Amino acid sequence: MDYKDFGLVNTKEVFLDALAKHYAVPAFNFYNMETLSAIVSAAREMKSPVILAVSESALKYMGPELLMGMIWGLNIKPSEKIALHLDHGGSFEACVNAIKLGFSSVMIDGSKLPFSANADLAKQVTDFAHKYDVTVEAELGTLSGIEDENTQSEYSSYANPNDVVNFVNATNIDSLAIAIGTSHGAYKRKSENEKLRFDILEKISKELPDFPLVLHGASSIPQHYIETINTFGGKMSDARGIPADQLKQAVRMNICKINVDSDSRLAFTAGVRETLAQKPETFNPRDYLGKGMKNIFDNCVEEIKSIMNSENKI
Ligand code: G3H
Ligand code: 13P
Ligand code: ZN
Questions:
Q1: Which of 139, 153, 161, 163 has an alpha carbon within 20 to 30 A of 4's alpha carbon?
Q2: How far are the Cα atoms of 67, 101, 173, 204 from residue 128, in angstroms, in the given order?
Q3: What is the pTM of this model?
Q4: Residue 189 CB less than 6 A away from ligand 2
């Protein structure tokens, strides 16, 4: 189906607006009704554009029919500026499949390939996607941590500023994810003092002054959720994220999409653990899933206001 039939938009216009007004469009990952509903409710409440991100494993978990049925059920209007995005697409076929389902944006993640193979793959995807007015993100440099269940890299390797112009010209992509020191998951840093490589970001922004740049692995790992999880039976010591002030600085330097998954996972888990511990007699999943959903809503609202600066942009 065509994504426009679902009321979705691609990322082109929102990114241009984000660049002009210095905000980031939040890309929140979802994988069930609770996560989707909480994210969309928060974006609507904040009047923020939003990118609904689905990894290949999340797509498999929900099943394509149920996923697209939920998107249909949101009754989206194009004026709301909601995109449905394949996160870390691992192959040309995965991107084609998502586009045929009704996704309005895809990421082709060839970041672990050599430069020219990464560029060739991205070009193959843009040639196909652009025929359907679907926008394409690709990545340069790799992030440490788990990018998807079947793509892991042990060490960070930063995006090379000397490569970015060639890569964008060779591929015709619409946005570029760059590795500047973020990583996926809840254990990003050994100490509070580590900083993103703003020197690399500055060079890349100079090379590509009006081009949308993307930050993956950008969860801030709110410590109050870690405390709740640990208080109620969890074991997540030393979980640490990217501090909000560093993310805000990145937004001022042409980062116009910020990917967040782990923070929602923490918010949800904290809500479930707290409810089960405080109401040991409950066996109604709506009690604890409801609290998890409320936590995700609250966290998305907070991040839209305090990190993304995307409030009241639609
Ligand atoms: O960046 C990757 C996302 O956090 C996806 O993770 O494959 O477990 O859904 P997942
Ligand atoms: P986090 O693990 O920091 O939430 O990153 C999510 C992400 O990059 C999804 O693509
Ligand atoms: Zn990612």
A1: 139
A2: 23, 14, 11, 27
A3: 0.95
A4: no
